[in-house]
Write a structure and sequence with these properties.
alpha+beta, single chain
Length: about 300
C-alpha cells in the first residue's frame, strides 16, 4: 500500500484500489455508482466503487468512521502544459457526455448560472458597503474601493449575457433529457494511463449534478486558463476565444455540440476572459469577509 492525496492506495489481487474516508450522502453515492458502472460498461475508465460483504458501498470502522473502496489506475494527471493531453481530455469528456444521462432527480439539480452570478455579485456589493461604512484602513481596502466598480461592471455583464441568450431553454432541455455533468472535470481528475497511448481514466465524480453539459467543458477550459499555459495552444497573440474554438473542435470530433451550444460555450468563454479576475477577487474578498464581517 501507499499513501496518496487524502487516501490510501492498495495493491491487491483485484488490481490497484484506493481507500478513502467518506463524508457524503450514501443515497447520492448509489446514483453515482449507477452512473460509473454505465460508463465502465461502455469503455470509459472510471473509479467505480467496490461493495463490501454486506453489499454496501460504504464501510465503517470500530469508531464509525465511513470509508469507500474504489478501482484506481496507474497514470499521471493531465499535463496543462501539454496540448496533446488537453485535447485528449476534451475528447474524453465528449465521449463521457454521450453516456451521462439519468432519470432527473430534483435534489441533484445544479443551481442556475443566473442565480449563482447574482449571489456572487451581491457578495461583492456587501463587502463594498462594509468597507465604505467602516472606512478603508489599509492598502488592500483602499485599492478595492478604487477598483470595485469595474469588476462589478464585468460581473453584471455576465448576467446580462445570460438574459440575452436562450440559456433558460437550454437548461430546461438538459433537465428533461437527464443530462449529467461531472461537476469537477479538471486536470487533477483526468489520468493519462501508463502503457496505453490513447487511454484515459476519469475520477472523482463526487460533485456530479444534473446540468447543461457544456458547463463541464467551460470549467475545464477555465482551469486551463488559470494555469497561465494557454499560449501552448497556438502562437502568441491569438486570443482565448480562438483557443476555446480549438477545444470545441476537438470535442466535436466525438459529439456534436450543435450551433446554440457551441455559441453558448464561446459566449461563456468570452465572459471568462472578462470575468476571471472578478471571480478571483470575489474569492479573495469572501475569505477576507469571513474574517472581518462574519465575526460579528
Amino acid at each position: 500500500s501507499a499513501r496518496t492525496r487524502g487516501a490510501l492506495l492498495c495493491y491487491t489481487a483485484q488490481g490497484l484500489l484506493i481507500l478513502r474516508e467518506f463524508h457524503g450522502s450514501e443515497k447520492k453515492l448509489e446514483k453515482q455508482q449507477e452512473l460509473l458502472m454505465r460508463l465502465q460498461e461502455n469503455g470509459i475508465n472510471t473509479d467505480y466503487f467496490l461493495r463490501n460483504n454486506q453489499e454496501s458501498l460504504v464501510s465503517k470502522d470500530k469508531t464509525e468512521q465511513r470509508f469507500t473502496l474504489q478501482h484506481w489506475y496507474e497514470g499521471k494527471e493531465c499535463d496543462t502544459k501539454s496540448r496533446e493531453d488537453i485535447l485528449k481530455s476534451v475528447r474524453t469528456l465528449a465521449r463521457l457526455h454521450i453516456l451521462m444521462k439519468m432519470e432527473p432527480v430534483e435534489e441533484y439539480r445544479e443551481r442556475s448560472l443566473r442565480e449563482e452570478y447574482l449571489r456572487h455579485n451581491q457578495e461583492l456589493r456587501k463587502i463594498r458597503k462594509f468597507i465604505r461604512n467602516k472606512g478603508a484602513s489599509n492598502v488592500f481596502e483602499k485599492n478595492y474601493l478604487a477598483s470595485v466598480e469595474q469588476f462589478l461592471e464585468r460581473a453584471q455583464y455576465a448576467v446580462k449575457l445570460l438574459d440575452e441568450t436562450d440559456y433558460d431553454d437550454l437548461r430546461e432541455r438538459a433537465w428533461r433529457e437527464g443530462q449529467v455533468c461531472h461537476g469537477e472535470y479538471n486536470q487533477h481528475n483526468i489520468l493519462m494511463l501508463k502503457g496505453d497511448h490513447f487511454g484515459t481514466a476519469v475520477t472523482n465524480f463526487g460533485h456530479w449534478s444534473f446540468d447543461i453539459q457544456i458547463a463541464d467543458l467551460y470549467r475545464f477550459m477555465r482551469k486551463i486558463l488559470e494555469t497561465g499555459k494557454l499560449l501552448l495552444f497556438t502562437q502568441k497573440g491569438v486570443d482565448f476565444r480562438e483557443k476555446c474554438g480549438k477545444a470545441s473542435e476537438s470535442y466535436q470530433t466525438e459529439r456534436n455540440l450543435g450551433e446554440f451550444c457551441r455559441g453558448m460555450f464561446q459566449g461563456l468563454s468570452s465572459v471568462t476572459v472578462r470575468n476571471s479576475c472578478t471571480e478571483q477577487l470575489r474569492k479573495t474578498l469572501t475569505i477576507w469577509g469571513k474574517r472581518y464581517i462574519y465575526r460579528g
